[in-house]
Design brief:
Layout: E1 4-15, H1 18-24, H2 27-47, E2 51-56, E3 59-64, H3 73-92, E4 101-115, E5 118-122, H4 124-135, E6 141-143, H5 145-151, E7 155-157, E8 161-165, E9 169-179, H6 198-214, E10 218-223, H7 230-241, E11 246-250, H8 261-270, H9 279-293, H10 301-311, H11 317-320, H12 326-344, E12 350-355, H13 362-374, E13 379-385, H14 389-392, E14 403-407, H15 413-423, H16 431-441, H17 445-461, H18 471-477, H19 481-492, H20 496-508, E15 511-513, H21 514-517, H22 527-536, E16 540-543, E17 553-556, H23 559-567, H24 571-588, H25 597-613, H26 619-652
Parallel strand pairs: 4-6, 10-13, 10-14, 11-12, 12-13
Antiparallel strand pairs: 1-3, 1-4, 2-3, 4-5, 6-9, 7-9, 8-9, 15-17, 16-17
Helix pairs in contact: 2-3, 3-5, 9-10, 10-12, 15-16, 15-17, 16-17, 16-18, 19-23, 20-22, 20-23, 24-25, 25-26
């Protein structure tokens, strides 16, 4: 589609006092130092999923959110800044030319495109990011308001301060002082009691009892989109069996340590290794634990310690297993883990929870699969995953008698209301506002929580300058940036043809027909194949009622999917598609055209306003068309209103009536 409108986070970093470097040092040394520093910045940005847009003299500009969006792009940008600062400090400790840097981070909507294959973004958010960087002190990481909101659960921020940003005005900024966790793992916030999951909990509890009775492993995979409550569900299950009978590992979305990180967490918890333990202390605890597990002499504790030390991230492969060929390494590690768990669970069944398995490295998936098939142990392997896991492992768990999968459905209307009641004091909001939260969230617990959070923040900041706020209307039109990032990341993992189909559908609204989508763009598109895939991914749902244009009717599974799909379209694409949609409706409706005049007028008006904002050449013609269609629709609406009024009047007198 070319240009897109995206929610991104921009990171600016520049070298403090760069002018004096050339005055005080040999230019070749300065050049080599800067090249080395910028190469480090590029590598760290790439490791965190960002893209370096450009180097400008002594400044680096990186973008998180294009070409692919992630639900945690703001957090990634802040983590990248911390990582760059650490790398620069390490480099300075051994360099004759130490460098100081300052960092500015800001999030917001931009227009993105490409030039010569490079990512290019433009917009107010980019300019604001540069101003935030200018206000930062040496070695300070300063962020704007949107970045703080998006990264609040992962970063500890200092007190806010106001800055005067050139060309923008007053801005509030916050220093990022500390990461909540060194790894990108989100802490579970239990804001309210769990609701609507009793049937699924009973099923997993029954599997746990079967595992206990049979003394063999069981694999259960819990699927669901982001925000549906998989982690909350697992936490509730663990509460019921006791934390000592369970271990939890988190798959990481990025980073060099991501492959076996869940196993590292599990082994560290099992050996009671603390975050503050030195490497030697941690290795000592692991060896002690292994000796106690293999006290019967069934395995060589030293050999097991070396293999599990690699999985625990405490020893390198070269250090621990110099004689093991690389082709045999994975099987050696899997076998060691299986033997450990088999001995560890004798008479003590264990639940292993793997969070976010859709991010898992193939080697980890192989390891879990190996445990499910070969472990002679009472292990319940609980895997939490989004449906994308099946893109990489279509046959995950298939064909096993000791494997099952379940999908967490959206909350019912009543359960969603119960969740709102759990998050807010009774009668804290009018019924209309609570109903609107439930309607907008459409059964997704995280969406409920985010809309409630927005209302709390609105209450804290007080009414706007214009007076009181219509809270129901606020919820109806609000789109929390956290949810926009969440949906964008989901859409970005789709094939371009599927994203294209969803954007065409978004122009029509919540409901649309496959026949209509073929009319909106000159570019060829296999609409049926794209919508079939979107249905499989639970993005759209087939409907049975007739729709204009023929073909199969659909609706968006969630209104936010439609909303984000539409927001990401450039205004140039919007006006062209609205214009095409309105003209198509006129033609397709035939002799029933008067029934659709208001819809035609809507598309004509949207085409005009979007073209007008771009000062497009076609604006005048689109404006004339919009005026004519609005007048026609308004005239017919007035006639219809008179007819309704007349019919009501004549009915009240119990006399026949005619349409005026």
């Amino acid at each position: 589609m070319g240009e897109e409108r995206r929610l991104v986070t921009v990171l600016f970093a520049d070298i403090v006092g760069s002018t004096s470097l050339n005055d005080d040092h040999d230019p070749e040394l300065v050049r080599a130092t800067l090249q080395s520093a910028f190469a480090t910045c590029r590598d760290i940005v790439a490791e965190h999923g960002g893209t370096v847009e450009k180097f400008i003299g002594d400044e680096v500009m990186a973008v998180f959110g294009v070409p692919e969006a992630h639900e945690d792009d703001a957090e990634r940008a802040v983590r990248a800044a911390f990582a760059i600062r650490r790398a620069m400090a390490e480099r300075n400790s051994r360099s004759r030319l130490p460098l100081q840097m300052r960092y500015g981070i800001n999030s917001g909507e931009v227009v993105s495109g490409s030039a010569s294959g490079d990512v290019m973004v433009t917009g107010r958010a980019v300019n604001a990011g540069a101003r935030v960087r200018e206000a930062a002190a040496p070695e300070e990481i300063l962020v704007g308001a949107n970045t703080r909101e998006l990264a609040l659960t992962a970063v500890r921020f200092g007190a806010s301060r106001s800055i005067m940003a050139k060309g923008i005005g007053t801005m509030q900024v916050w220093p990022a002082e500390k990461l909540v966790s060194e790894m990108p793992i989100r802490a579970l916030a239990r804001q309210a009691p769990i609701v609507g999951r009793e049937d699924e909990l009973q099923l997993v509890r029954a599997l746990e009892r079967r595992m206990h009775d049979s003394q063999r492993p069981f694999l259960v995979t819990i699927f669901g989109p982001a925000g549906i409550g998989k982690s909350r569900f697992a936490a509730e299950f663990i509460d019921g069996i006791g934390v000592e009978r369970s271990r939890v590992g988190h798959c990481l979305p990025y980073g060099q340590a991501s492959a076996f990180w869940p196993l590292r967490e599990i082994l560290h918890a099992d050996a009671r290794i603390g975050a503050d333990d030195t490497r030697e202390e941690a290795l000592g605890k692991l060896r002690t634990r292994i000796r106690s597990v293999f006290a019967d002499g069934s395995e060589d504790p030293g050999a097991m310690s070396r293999r599990l030390g690699v999985l625990a991230g405490l020893m390198s492969v070269d250090e621990a297993l110099p004689d093991v060929q690389s082709a045999n390494l994975a099987s050696e590690l899997r076998l060691a883990l299986r033997r450990y768990l088999e001995r560890r669970t004798r008479g003590k069944p264990l639940v292993l929870v793997f969070e976010d398995l859709h991010w898992a490295d193939p080697a980890l998936l192989d390891t879990i699969d190996h445990l499910a098939e070969w472990a002679a142990a009472p292990l319940l392997l609980v895997c939490l995953a989004r449906p994308e896991l099946l893109d990489t492992r279509p046959s995950w768990g298939a064909g096993r008698t000791n494997a099952t999968a379940l999908t967490l459905p959206p909350l019912s209307y009543g359960d969603a209301h119960a969740l709102v009641d759990g998050l807010l004091p009774k009668h804290a909001l009018p019924a209309a506002v609570r109903d609107e939260i439930v309607r907008r969230a459409e059964g997704n617990p995280l969406y409920v929580e985010e809309f409630v959070r927005m209302l709390r923040e609105l209450e804290e900041t007080g009414p706007t300058a214009g007076g009181s706020v219509d809270l129901a209307e606020f919820v109806r039109i609000a789109l929390p940036a956290t949810l926009q990032g969440l949906v964008s990341s989901r859409l970005d993992r789709l094939a371009p043809a599927v994203r294209d189909a969803l954007r065409r559908a978004a122009v029509f609204g919540e409901r649309f027909s496959s026949g209509a989508l073929t009319e909106l763009d000159a570019a060829p598109l296999d609409v049926d194949a794209a919508l079939s895939f979107a249905t499989q991914r639970d993005l759209v749902v087939p409907i049975s009622e007739p729709v204009l244009g023929g073909g199969q009717g659909f609706r968006f599974r969630h209104a936010l999917i439609r909303e984000v799909s539409y927001r990401e379209m450039s205004k140039s694409d919007r006006w062209r598609m609205h214009d095409a949609a309105g003209r198509w409706i006129e033609t397709a409706s035939g002799d029933r055209a008067p029934e659709h005049e208001d819809l035609v007028a809507y598309h004509a008006e949207q085409a005009f306003w979007n073209a007008r904002e771009l000062e497009a050449h076609e604006t005048d013609a689109l404006g004339l068309r919009a005026f004519e269609r609005i007048i026609t629709a308004a005239t017919n609406w007035r006639r219809a209103s008179r007819w309704v009024a007349a019919s009501s009047s004549t009915r009240s007198r119990s006399t026949p009536f005619t349409r005026p």
